[in-house]
Write a structure and sequence with these properties.
Layout (H helix, E strand, L loop, with lengths): L8 H12 L5 E2 H7 L5 H16 L3 E4 L2 E4 L6 E7 L5 E5 L5 E4 L12 E6 L11 E8 L4 E9 L2 E6 L8 E4 L10 E6 L11 E2 L1 E7 L3 H11 L8 H8 L7 H5 L2 E2 L6 E4 L8 E7 L5 E8 L1 H4 L5 H9 L3 E2 L4 E2 L4 H7 L7 E11 L5 E12 L2 E4 H8 L9 H20 L9 E6 L5 E7 L3 H22 L9 E3 L5 H12 L14 H10 L6 H11 L4 E3 L23 H14 L7 H35 L5 E10 L2 E6 L4 E6 L8 E4 L4 E4 L5 E2 L4 E10 L4 E6 L4
């Protein structure tokens, strides 16, 4: 950049003053007087800052009168801060990402919308650097952290380690907080990067040592909304639980069909149900019935505004934070057994090869006959209780889902097959075990029918001569550079990832994932492949779904817990009834927002699980575990412990049996004298030496030579 504008308090003060008086011009001494600059040294600094702002075209000068320039300069982006101090700004218009150093962040905080000056690219393999000119929108207005009194004031140490500054609280703003409490603190003032933000205690959550408070504070620190405002709760409470006969009369009545749900044993909301039956012409009728949330949650209501604000339910390690109040999510909209409920159904006809030959979308009223858990459904698939009335429909559904899976895999879909980790908690919220949730064929059964309904909904709108604006779930082709690195990486293990025009096809990537099944390196290669992938997002621009290898895909099946699905239902109903096209710009704004909230929710879910895994590791300090090397860097060796299913770091500084050197080309840590090596996929033994729940980090010692 030609002119470096320091993000100093002086500069911020000048710009703020002139912005507040945007239609006026002021002499330099008038501005100085307004800013209370009365000593010579500061006045000289003020003069230099004025000159630099003029050079940067942020101020206009007429003689020695200055006006804030009306045309905005610089690039608009969202700041993401790394806990180690640096960060990135993602350009809102081009999606390009710029690197930013901590001193150049000005008074911006993680998540803020900022205007930055961007420098020239120094080398092809490095991101362009930037510095903050202005905080356009302070998106971080409150912080969750630990309250610590310090004499005449207190500080709040943020739980979110992407907030690099403590928040100062004056004594008259403690609001009953005590030392060690987890609190919510406002950010009322932040004018100098070299100082701390100032705020007030808004809410005391409880003692920092309480395991339930720890999860709650972590979630709230990541902008998870936990309580529903009064107007929202009032609207939910006013909803009728009974269905008027007039509503039943206008819908397709499917209450006689054998409809069933399959969900985890601890599920409380049932948003999808199935029915399977033969038709008279040798095909199968498959009904995917989805809770009709759009019937109850209407646009421009407090309920809808709050659902959009949340955008998704959040599944923390010890609780669910729903998108909708319990009256809706667990009662009125839940497809509970032995109750009449309203649904929006995709009823499809499949031939004997599992090919879709016809479909309809219909507003229905259903009556679920059975609520099955995955284990119960799996028992029927295994041939148990064949005389049970649910056994035959489940076995039929399983048979058809196998056809769908085979067709999808033959079409080039990728099955990463990742297992979910479940932390078992006692009544007080302390972890007692860490287990892998087994992915049963019954799980896949449900997944395949949901995939089919999602594809059908997207194709219904997109596969026309003049498609109307719609929400798609898209997954872009991976970044070619990342795929090239992945290809180089898997060669170390003796595998091949062929590239076509510098990138991998879904079929070739799927073949690699199949080739590493049950191999020692399966975990590390699968994770590397997932990191190489683009992130699936919502968009009005349909580019297909790379990972699933679908040309058309959306999210139709979970409006109880995902706001985009609710919009999809509304749009389908609107277009089926001949309604006008939706506003594409407004729709795209909501796509971007919901994608961002989804990422936040996933982070909160992942970190809440890791919190309990680290707490579990604390109880095993000094114990020895077998693990697999999951990553190697110049500062140490990452190991995933098999029994705890969590990753820790053996620091190179503690590997004192040799002098170790990191080989970047082979991802190998090698001892210079003894030749001991550590590389991803190696089996090793480790001892836990420390575990920090605040940082969610585990330190290890490597015990074995290999």
């Amino acid at each position: 950049m030609s002119t470096s504008v320091s993000p100093s308090p002086m500069r911020q003060a000048i710009l703020s003053f002139l912005k507040d008086h945007s239609n006026e011009s002021f002499h330099d001494h008038e501005i100085a007087q307004a800013l209370d600059l009365d000593d010579n040294q500061r006045f000289l600094q003020f003069g230099r800052t004025l000159e630099r702002l003029v050079e940067a075209e942020l101020l206009e000068r007429d003689g020695n009168k200055f006006t804030h320039k009306s045309i905005e300069r610089g690039t608009l982006g969202v700041l993401s801060v790394h806990p180690r101090g640096f960060g990135f700004v993602r350009d809102t218009s081009s999606d390009e990402e710029y690197f930013i150093r901590e001193p150049h962040m000005g008074t911006a905080l993680h998540g803020d919308l900022v205007r930055v000056a961007v420098g020239a690219q120094k080398s092809p393999d490095k991101k362009r650097e930037c510095e903050v000119l202005d905080v356009e929108e302070r998106r971080r207005t409150r912080v969750v952290g630990t309250f610590r009194p310090q004499g005449s004031h207190a500080i709040v140490q943020p739980d979110d380690n992407r907030i690099l500054q403590d928040v100062i609280v004056a004594k008259d703003a403690y609001n009953g907080a005590k030392n060690g409490n987890k609190v919510v603190v406002s950010i009322d003032q932040f004018t100098d990067r070299r100082a701390s933000p100032e705020g007030r205690i808004l809410q005391v959550l409880g003692d920092a040592d309480d395991p339930n408070v720890q999860v709650l504070s972590l979630a709230m620190s990541m902008d998870v909304r936990t309580d529903f405002p009064e107007p929202v709760q009032r609207e939910a409470d006013a909803i009728r639980t009974s269905i008027p006969q007039s509503e039943i009369d206008r819908r397709h009545d499917l209450r006689d069909a054998f409809i069933f749900t399959i969900d985890p044993d601890d599920a409380k909301d049932f948003d999808d149900a199935l029915h399977i039956r033969k038709t008279g012409n040798g095909t199968w009728e498959v009904g995917v019935h989805i809770a009709d949330v759009s019937h109850y949650v209407e646009p421009d209501t407090a309920l809808d505004d709050e659902a959009l604000e949340r955008a998704t339910s959040v599944y923390l390690v010890d609780r669910t934070v729903p998108m909708l109040p319990e009256k809706l999510s667990n009662q009125v909209c839940s497809l509970r057994p032995n109750e009449d409920t309203l649904a929006f159904s995709c009823i499809m006809e499949l031939d004997k090869q599992g090919t879709l030959v016809d479909y309809t979308f219909e507003e229905t009223v259903i009556h679920s006959k059975r609520r099955l858990t995955y284990d119960e459904a799996q028992a029927f698939i295994n041939g148990e209780d064949p005389d049970d009335e649910a056994a035959l429909p489940v076995k039929r559904a399983h048979s058809i889902s196998n056809l769908l899976t085979n067709n999808r895999m033959e079409g080039g879909g990728i099955d990463f097959g990742t297992d979910e980790v479940k932390v078992v908690l006692d009544d007080k919220g302390h972890p007692t075990d860490v287990v892998v949730k087994e992915r049963l064929p019954a799980n896949r059964l449900v997944e395949e029918f949901m995939l089919l309904a999602n594809r059908t909904a997207a194709r219904h709108v997109a596969d026309t001569d003049n498609p109307k604006p719609f929400i798609y779930r898209i997954h872009d082709t991976p970044d070619a550079e990342r795929i090239q690195k992945l290809s180089n990486y898997v060669e170390i293990f003796g595998h091949t990832l062929p590239l076509t025009d510098g990138n991998a096809t879904p079929s070739d990537l799927g073949a690699l994932i199949d080739a590493i099944k049950d191999q020692p390196e399966e975990v590390v290669i699968t994770r590397a492949a997932l990191r190489a992938m683009s992130k699936a997002v919502y968009s009005t621009k349909n580019i297909g779904h790379y990972g699933l290898n679908f040309p058309y895909y959306t999210h139709f099946t979970s409006p109880i817990r995902r706001y985009p699905d609710l919009i999809v239902h509304r749009l389908l109903k609107r277009y089926l009834s001949g309604g006008d096209a939706a506003d594409p710009e407004r729709l795209e704004e909501r796509c971007e927002y919901c994608s961002e909230k989804e990422r936040d929710a996933e982070s909160a879910e992942r970190e809440s699980v890791k919190l309990k895994q680290v707490e579990y590791a604390q109880a095993h300090i000094g114990d020895t575990f077998e693990g697999v090397v999951s990553g190697v860097t110049k500062f140490g060796v990452f190991v995933e412990m098999n029994d705890l299913l969590v990753e820790g770091l053996a620091h190179v500084r503690d590997m004192d049996d040799d002098y170790y050197v990191y080989d970047e080309e082979t991802y190998t840590m090698r001892g210079k004298n003894k030749g001991t090596t550590y590389r991803p996929g190696d089996t090793v033994n480790v001892r836990i030496v420390s575990a920090n729940t605040d940082k969610r980090e585990i330190d290890l010692w490597l015990l074995n030579d290999n």
